[in-house]
Design brief:
Layout (H helix, E strand, L loop, with lengths): L1 H19 L23 H5 L6 E2 L11 H13 L1 H22 L4 E12 L5 H7 L7 E15 L4 H67 L5 H35 L22 E2 L8 H4 L1 H21 L5 E12 L12 E10 L5 H69 L5 H35 L16 H5 L2
Parallel strand pairs: 1-4
Antiparallel strand pairs: 2-3, 3-5, 5-6
Helix pairs in contact: 3-6, 4-6, 6-7, 6-9, 6-11, 7-11, 9-10, 10-11
């Protein structure tokens, strides 16, 4: 056994030397890039002056709309949406990649054993030759048991750079799931608001259609008595038909929105249609609280965290490619026992066997290919850097556009509400005047058309205001809680701030 130890002593000395060099790693160390952003949002002061019934905090902003059914649908989407299921599967893949990168840094070992029994033919040339040997036994047995281990010494940090890249990719996949969660919440709420808006527009058109039908009935009665010309009757019927023609298009859009919502909830179209059948008011936009600054987006928005982690991964791959310039050393060791007589001789000093191998691999004449690999890695890092900076700028653009749209749509809604009230009074006055013969049918139909157009525009403005609020929450990165990371996963928020 002492001989076996002597065989392995030199590789163990090299192992100790390698551990002392374990802190060395070629390639650039990663530093999070600086992104120049403004100190505040352009529309922040106007957003703060908004009046809203409810407040909404970023983490659970959908509850700020004060609509239980909307909150329920978002919860269902989190549990059943298939985009989220795919994002979870990508995390599993990235975690496996990280595990493989971690294992590559550790020694690997094998345990093998074999037992063989042979019966040699005496009719072959070999058998005849062996049979002529005194004491030859044509029945042979062989037993062997070995334990081997091998380890690639990461002297220049190539494997550690691979590990850094795998860790960054895993963190990017975690952020990607959070980004998908944010999109799912926003899309679910957006479809719900769109459905309520279309239902209200259909209800407005149907109410106007009922009013115009009553007008047609009245004109028909007056026409039958010779008190109204045929022209008035034709105009009344034409206006009624025009209003009625708008309803099928709105209903088709409503069907599409309901189908899209069902798919977003991970169920076949039509599953939740009955729950949406009752027409309800369009939810009003809540007050946006804890909006933060543009710089907060770098820590808050998961898509920006994902882009930054991919940048870190590309930086680590430069080091992994650079490590190919240097030689790679490996140690292989074997301890075992073997006998060709009987198991009784196993593990005896004469049956023991040992091997120690120091391996060297160096791509000495392949530097041109290594240069190309390094240049490719640097190009990928430059692309990831540009993508990260562009994502940050577009994130602030998303917030500015959403906040501006929210403010303007609410202003438009307030003006249209005033207009609707005035036009409703004007329409009633025109109808009374027509009954008294003071104005023509044209005045009544004109008032009807204006009222319908204004009421429909008001419903659209209310819908778009609520959708703009949803877009603002999404742009601000609301809908996930950084402090509630899954067990064993990295803290993306604190990691990204480093």
């Amino acid at each position: 056994m002492s001989e076996n130890i002597m065989v392995l002593r030199q590789p163990l000395v090299l192992f100790t030397f390698t551990v002392a060099l374990a802190g060395c790693a070629v390639g650039p160390d990663y530093k999070k890039p600086e992104v120049s952003l403004t100190d505040h949002y352009l529309a922040s002061s106007q957003v703060g002056q908004r009046t809203a019934i409810n407040d909404a905090y970023l983490d659970m902003w959908w509850e700020g709309f004060n609509d239980p059914l909307l909150t329920r649908f978002v919860s269902i989407a989190f549990n059943q949406n298939l985009d989220l299921a795919q994002a979870s599967a990508r995390i599993t893949q990235a975690r496996s990649g990280l595990s493989m990168a971690n294992v590559a840094l550790l020694p690997s070992g094998d345990l093998s054993a074999s037992a063989a029994r042979n019966h040699q033919s005496l009719e072959t040339p070999l058998g005849q030759l062996l049979n002529a040997t005194p004491g030859y036994d044509r029945n042979g047995r062989q037993y062997e048991a070995n334990m081997s281990a091998s380890w690639e010494m990461d002297l220049f940090g190539g494997l550690r750079r691979d590990q850094e890249a795998a860790m960054a990719e895993y963190q990017a996949s975690e952020a990607g799931k959070n980004a998908t969660r944010l999109v799912v919440a926003a899309k679910t709420a957006d479809l719900y608001i769109l459905i309520r808006g279309l239902q209200n527009r259909i209800a407005i058109a149907q109410h106007q259609l009922e009013t115009q039908q009553k007008l047609v009935t009245l004109v028909e009665l007056l026409h039958s008595r010779g008190l109204a010309p045929t022209r008035d009757l034709d105009q009344a019927k034409g206006t009624r038909a025009q209003t009625e023609s708008t309803i099928p298009a709105l209903e088709a859009n409503l069907e599409e929105a309901m189908n899209a919502l069902d798919v977003m909830l991970g169920v076949p179209p039509g599953t939740y249609r009955n729950e949406l059948a009752t027409v309800q008011n369009i939810p009003s936009s809540p007050q946006i609280t804890a909006m933060g600054t543009p710089s907060d987006l770098l820590r808050r928005r998961p898509d920006l965290i994902m882009a930054e982690r991919r940048l870190a991964a590309s930086n680590a791959r430069i080091g992994a490619a650079t490590a190919e310039y240097y030689p790679k050393f490996s140690i292989t060791a074997l301890l075992g026992t073997a006998t060709a007589i009987s198991t009784g001789n196993m593990f005896s000093s004469g049956a023991n066997q040992a091997t120690g191998v120091l391996g060297l691999r160096w791509r000495l004449f392949d530097f041109g290919r290594i240069n190309a690999q390094i240049e490719m890695a640097k190009g990928q890092e430059a692309e990831a850097m540009a993508a990260y900076r562009q994502a940050a700028l577009r994130a602030t653009e998303d917030v500015e556009n959403a906040l501006s749209s929210l403010i303007k749509r609410e202003q438009q809604t307030a003006l249209l509400l005033q207009s609707e009230t005035s036009l409703s009074q004007a329409r009633n006055s025109a109808f009374v005047a027509y009954q008294k013969g003071a104005v023509s049918m044209i005045e009544v139909l004109y008032a009807d058309e204006n009222l319908l157009r204004t009421s429909d525009a008001k419903a659209q403005a209310q819908t778009e205001a609520a959708r703009s609020a949803i877009a603002a929450f999404k742009a601000l990165g609301g809908g996930w809680e950084p402090s509630k990371a899954s067990p064993g996963s990295p803290n993306l928020l604190s990691m990204n701030a480093q």
